[in-house]
Amino acid sequence: MLAFALGITAAQAQAPASAPPLQVREIGSMHVGGQVRALDGMPMREMVPSPGAPPIRMDPNGEFMVEGMYAQYVKLAEPRARYPLLLWHGGGLTGVTWETTPDGRPGWQMYFLRQGHDVYVSDAVERGRAGWARFPEIFAGEPVFRTMGEGWGLFRVGPQEGWNADPARRRAFPETLFPVAAWNDFTRQSVPRWPTTDRQIQAAYNEYVRKVCPCVIIVHSQGGNFAFNAALAAPDKVRAIIAIEPSGTPAAATDASPLRNVPHLVVWGDYFAESPFWQRIRGNVERWVGSIREAGGTADIMDLPAEGVRGNSHMLMMDRNSDEVASRIQAWMERQGLMR
Q1: What is the pLDDT of residues 5-58, one digit of tens each?
Q2: What is the pTM of this model?
Q3: Cα–Cα distances in Å, from 301 out to 43, 117, 225, 235, 290?
Q4: Position 54 in a domain
Q5: Beta strand 85-88 with 119-123: parallel, antiparallel or unpaired?
Q6: Whole-number Å distance between alpha carbons of 87 and 150
Q7: How far apart are CA 125 and CA 131, in angstroms?
Q8: Do 220 and 97 meet the contact criterion of CB atoms below 8 Å apart?
Q9: 79 lies in a domain?
């Protein structure tokens, strides 16, 4: 069996000296979901396909494969986890969330591989390697682009008024664990997102679950609602959900009883007192947690500040204590019987 050391040079350099190479059985990828959409009546146009090439006439009419998603997987030679681990990103982001951190440390993809999980990292519909579609002809409306400063307050790295284009003049929360010197590198990960594609994203995630599960899902922010609904659609396929600061839930009247055998863990970071927006979100999520419990299911909350861990931002998997947070999640999975 070939021994693989997975990761980029910076990640390898920061791995513990005693960490053995990963024994990897397979690395691959797939596109999942989507449909064929046809366009007609669009005007022809001329373009030069590459420098020095003659112009060609482009016909935008015809059939297009759209609304699919992308996933990359790393399968271990001898996984210790009973089920593959699927990592789902949040809004305006891609699967890069889970790879190397903005300041060059190994991310949760590597952490959980080293804990013995087969790991799948995906890009949702219209993100990253999933590809776009024409808009507004196929995707309604137009994409939203996040500014460099929007996430400073939204992701609770610092007060919004502390943002400044000049790094030397930015003001973060005094105890923040986000690697603020790498903020500009983090914003390079930002991609456009549509506010009108939830239905298409959910359909692709549901097909993804049907294709690769049974599985455990770790999901972040906007992805939370997609994971909750995917589990409702296929409770026999989802063995657990770990929701990292989820920003949405199923409708209040949704019956949570199908999830009584799907343990849930919700993880919260710090600085909620400084964000009325996140306080409202948290209230909605914890009501959903209550619905699962009332239906006879397991729904735990990991409130890091209440456990003595202060300073985490919304991007817990990138914070300087990301491995500590991951270790707490790993321990929860062990207690749920998800490891061999």
Answers
A1: 333 333 333 455 578 899 999 999 999 999 999 999 989 899 888 998 888 998
A2: 0.92
A3: 54, 23, 16, 20, 11
A4: no
A5: parallel
A6: 24
A7: 7
A8: yes
A9: yes
Q: How many domains does the chain have?
A: 1
Give yes or no for a contact between 305 and 270, defined as CB atoms under 8 angstroms apart.
yes
* CA–CA gap between residue 223 and residue 121 (Å, rounded): 13
Judge whether 119 and 76 are in contact, CB under 8 Å.
no
> What's the confidence (pLDDT) of residue 275?
96
Over residues 278-332, the pLDDT tens digits come to 999 999 999 999 999 999 999 999 999 999 999 999 999 999 999 999 999 999 9
- Tens of pLDDT, residue by residue over 164-204, are 999 999 999 999 999 999 999 999 999 999 999 999 999 99
Bridge partners (DSSP) of residue 300 are 265
In a domain, 29, yes or no: no
Q: What are phi and psi of 62, to 5 degrees?
A: 140, -165
- The DSSP H or E segment spanning 324 is helix 322-335
Q: In Å, what is the CA distance from 257 to each residue of 230, 234, 288, 290? A: 14, 12, 12, 12
Percent of the chain's residues with pLDDT above 70 = 95
Task: Go through 38-70 and write b for each residue having 16 or more CB atoms within 10 A of its CB, e for each that does not.
Answer: eeeeeeeeeeeeeeeeeeeeeeeeeebebbbbb
Structural domain that includes position 301: 3-15+61-335
Strands (DSSP E) found in 40-79 = 45-47, 56-58, 62-76
Does 253 have pLDDT greater than 80? yes
Please report, for residues 85, 140, 209, 240, the alpha-carbon distance to residue 110 in angstroms, rounded to integers and kept in the order given.
Answer: 12, 37, 22, 20
136 preceded by a cis bond (ω within 30 of 0)? yes
* Token output for 277: 């927006």
CATH number, domain with residue 95: 3.40.50.1820
Domain annotation covers residue 27: no
Residue among 72, 202, 191 at smallest CA distance from 131:
191
Question: What percent of the chain has pLDDT above 90?
Answer: 89
Q: Please report the pLDDT score of residue 14 as a whole number.
A: 47
